Amino acid sequence: MEGVVLPRVEKFKYLGAISVDIDRGINHRIRVTWKKCKSACGELCDKKIPVRLKERVYRMVVKPVVLYGAKCWPIKKTQVQRLMVAEMRMIRLMCGYTRLDRIRNVVIREEVGIAP
C-alpha cells in the first residue's frame, strides 16, 4: 500500500470480532456477553422486577452481544454447546437459580420465555 509494509499478525479484530480462530472468537463473544450481563445485573437479578420484563431486557441487551457476527461463523456442535451453556448460566443468574436447585433447563426456559 503505497510503499508501506503491513506487519504480519496472528490475529486481528474486525467489527469487534477476533478473526483467525473461531474458538478464540467465540470465547471473546462469551466474555463480552458476560461483561454486558454483569453490567445489566442490577435489573436482571432484581427479584422485584417481573420475569417477563427481565426476559425482554435480556433479549434486547444481552443476546445481541453474543450473536454479533454469528451469521458468518463456520460453527461446530461443540462451539454451539459452549454458547448454549454460557446462555443458560446467564438465564439461571437472571432467575436466581443455581445448578444445586436441580431445575431442568427446559423448565427455566419455559418460565422465562427464552428459546434455545
Query: In which range does the helix fraction lie?
Result: 55-70%
Q: What is the overall number of helices?
A: 5
- What shape does the CA trace take? elongated
Mean pLDDT: 85
Largest sheet: 2 strands, antiparallel
Beta-strand portion reads 5-15%
Low-confidence stretches: none
Give the distance, in angstroms, between the N- and C-terminal Cα atoms. 46 Å
Give the class from helix and strand content and strand pairing. mainly alpha
Element-by-element helix/strand order = EEHHHHH
- The number of strands is 2
When the domains are counted, the total is: 1
- Rg from C-alpha positions? 17 Å
Strands across the major sheet, in which order?
1-2
Describe this structure in words.
The chain is mainly alpha-helical and 116 residues long. The protein is built from five helices and two strands; from the N terminus they run ββααααα. The chain has helices at residues 22-39, 41-44, 51-67, 77-95, 105-112, and strands at 12-14, 17-19. It has a two-stranded antiparallel ribbon with strand order 1-2. The longest helix is centred in the last third of the chain and has 19 residues, at 77-95. The model has no long low-confidence stretch (mean pLDDT 85).
Defining key terms:
5 helices; 116 residues; mainly alpha
List the helices and strands and how they pair.
Elements: E1 12-14, E2 17-19, H1 22-39, H2 41-44, H3 51-67, H4 77-95, H5 105-112
Helix pairs in contact: 1-3, 1-4, 3-4, 4-5
In short:
The chain is mostly helical.
